[in-house]
Design goal:
The chain has 290 residues and is α+β, with helices and mostly antiparallel strands. The protein has 6 helices and 7 strands, in the order E-E-H-E-E-E-E-H-H-E-H-H-H. Bound molecules: zinc ion (3 copies).
């Protein structure tokens, strides 16, 4: 058995001590009896409850929910400067501490934050009023509290998160509800504005895409024109080469009287085609060369 002298808020020892039991059964026996005798003096015994744990979201640092249930879907909040960004890894932190709750110079999950402390106090008080013997039994198996005379010390135990969440949702305390409500509203507003900016980004990307698509289509058309030209040129060249071969076999007879004019014309046609292809390949840079 561990004996711990309890202190009040000013860190001064009070008359109550906390007994920590290694054995759950002896702890339960004493709790059931409601008293303990030491040196023939009977002391009143009540169950000990530690301060309630406050849920702080590791995504938005909001109070009262897990990361999994966070409403801030597309952004993460920097713990240090409380700035929001879509990718924390790319976030360049100023290093200046600014609490997301109170704006004070500490990280956003600092237990000394006034807002978090206030929340914890309200939550603890609320949980205490909700606790029934059945749900405390399995919460903290080997601690019990020996309360000397009537010092009504009020603390809660380390409740499971589920209990804490249950406690918050079934809470009737106006202050607490108001606070949660304002936090949730803030988170929702932020997530809405994020969604909006993402929509805008999407639209912009779509416009970019359409523009690029059009450019690609234009380029494809140009390439097709080039190919057509090149094809025509090849066909013409083939014809001319064929004529040359025929002429070589029968130089004087192949083109009749106009054979010289005919060849001059062919040379001119070749030159024109070449220069036209050279021109378009210069315009498009990646066109065929000759
Ligand atoms: Zn959150
Ligand atoms: Zn930061
Ligand atoms: Zn703070």
């Amino acid at each position: 058995v561990n004996v711990v002298r309890l202190k009040n808020k000013a860190q001064q020892p009070i008359r109550a001590v906390k007994l920590e039991f290694l054995s759950a059964s002896s702890r339960n026996e004493i709790l059931e009896a409601g008293e303990i005798s030491i040196m023939h003096i009977k002391y009143k015994v009540v169950e000990f409850f530690a301060q309630a744990n406050v849920l702080i979201c590791s995504n938005c640092y909001g109070i009262g929910h897990f990361r999994k249930n966070c409403n801030q879907k597309n952004e993460a909040t920097c713990k240090t400067c409380s700035e929001k960004c879509s990718n924390l890894k790319e976030h360049r932190c100023s290093g200046i501490q600014k609490c997301v709750h109170c704006g004070g110079p500490h990280v956003s999950n600092d237990a000394k934050c006034n807002v978090i402390q206030q929340y914890r106090t309200v939550l603890t008080r609320n949980l205490l009023s909700k606790i029934t013997p059945t749900n405390t039994e399995n919460v903290i198996p080997n601690q019990c509290f020996n309360n000397l005379p009537h010092t009504g010390l009020t603390t809660t135990n380390e409740l499971s998160y589920a209990n804490v969440v249950k406690g918050t949702t079934s809470n009737s305390n106006e202050l607490l509800m108001k606070k949660i409500d304002s936090i949730l509203t803030k988170v929702e507003e932020e997530s809405n504005s994020t969604r909006q900016s993402i929509e805008e980004l999407k639209k912009e990307m779509k416009n970019h895409y359409e523009e690029t698509k059009q450019q690609v289509a234009e380029l494809e058309e140009k390439v097709m024109v080039m190919e057509k030209k090149f094809y025509d040129f090849s066909v013409r060249t083939g014809e001319i080469i064929q004529n040359i071969c025929t002429t070589l076999m029968e130089p004087q007879n192949s083109q009749g009287q106009q054979w010289k004019t005919y060849w001059q014309e062919q040379i001119k046609v070749m030159a024109d085609s070449r220069s036209s292809i050279a021109k378009s390949s210069k315009n498009h840079q990646n066109g065929p060369t000759n």
